[in-house]
Design goal:
By secondary structure, the chain is an alpha/beta fold. The protein is 41% helix and 15% strand. It contains twelve helices and eleven strands. The protein is elongated.
């Protein structure tokens, strides 16, 4: 038990005593994933010895700060940024930190305007959410607050970034079709200028190679992130190879178009062809007929991870580099 006048222990004190990073200490005390049972026990033992409790995490980190964080997004529709925002707010804790959301609309001038406005408000840190997963130009190094990049990584290896594991998303989607008995699998991807498209395609080809199964047509079909492309590409695939029994689509929008084309071609889904998308975007998955199986990229988890890393950065240096968040398959009628 500490004396009434003793200095209150901080999360950094707990991390140092347990011999782990501040981010790991935060995860362990808040029962987050990706922390081993041994590490979790060591952190809790250190916290007990210092009379530190998990609900003090935010208070200890925000002592002397404003309790506000900026989130700058380039995602016009909020499709990616809103789940990330929700995850960040979950990690920050209700009533402890206010998140100020700014939409830069993919414009560098607007982004600078929002950045200056946030700094004038004396925010304690900034999360930058990209509108696609391609590496982006980092904010100025001279900023007085820590920055974490989410969804789109910073081009700088010295920054902290959290992104979806798109290559593993391709692996998971393909594995799901394989487990349902599909052996003649095609892949329809999006715009090849997007890192997400090429990463997901690489994952598809990797999993098929491991299984000793050839990709239908011998290559992915790249196009756009649209239902129209899904329809066009699917017709092209079936005309070229009528034996195709599974299609991995790099997005739910592409998958919706693929479903339409298969219906027009008289192919039953999932009896004749299994279809899986990526994103688990509810308007696409639930509104499809049949309902669409998809890989959920766990964007809320990504947001929580970004917030925890920002918290840790407020307390001290955090190991720079890119962290990838693994997705999961949500099975529905299309497979």
């Amino acid at each position: 038990m500490t004396d009434a006048g003793a200095k209150r222990a901080t999360l950094r004190d707990v991390a140092q005593r347990a011999g782990v990073s501040v981010a790991t200490a935060s995860k362990a005390l808040n029962d987050r994933q990706h922390v081993s049972a041994t590490t979790r026990a060591r952190v809790r033992e250190a916290a007990d010895s210092l009379s530190f409790t998990p609900n003090e995490t935010a208070r200890s980190l925000l002592a002397g700060q404003t309790g506000t964080v900026g989130l700058i997004t380039g995602d016009l529709e909020g499709r990616f940024s809103l789940p990330i925002l929700m995850g960040a707010e979950d990690a920050f804790g209700a009533g402890r930190v206010s998140v100020l959301l700014c939409d830069a609309r993919g414009d560098a001038i607007r982004e600078k305007y929002h950045l200056d406005a946030l700094l004038r408000r004396n925010v304690d840190g900034i999360i930058v959410v990209g509108y696609r997963t391609n590496p982006r130009v980092p904010l100025p190094e001279s900023l007085p607050v820590p920055v974490v990049y989410a969804y789109a990584p910073s081009e700088s290896a010295d920054d902290v970034s959290v992104i979806p594991d798109d290559e593993t998303a391709g692996v998971l989607a393909t594995d799901h079709l394989l487990t349902t008995g599909r052996r003649h699998i095609a892949h329809i991807s999006g715009d090849p200028d997007y890192t997400a498209a090429t990463d997901r395609a690489r994952g598809v080809e990797q999993r098929l190679s491991e299984e000793g199964v050839a990709l239908a047509l011998g290559r992915p079909l790249f196009g756009s992130w649209s239902e129209q492309w899904g329809r066009t590409a699917t017709r092209r695939l079936i005309e070229a190879d009528p034996e195709i029994d599974g299609i991995v689509c790099a997005s739910d929008q592409i998958a919706r178009g693929s479903l339409d084309a298969l219906k027009d071609l008289g192919r039953d889904v999932p009896r004749d062809v299994g279809i899986i998308g990526v994103d688990n975007w509810e308007p696409m998955t639930s509104g499809a007929s049949p309902t669409l199986t998809s890989v959920d990229l766990n964007l809320k988890e990504l947001g929580r991870e970004a917030a925890e890393l920002l918290f840790a950065s407020m307390a001290g240096p955090v190991e720079p580099g890119i962290r990838r968040v693994r997705g999961r398959v949500v099975a529905r009628e299309s497979t």
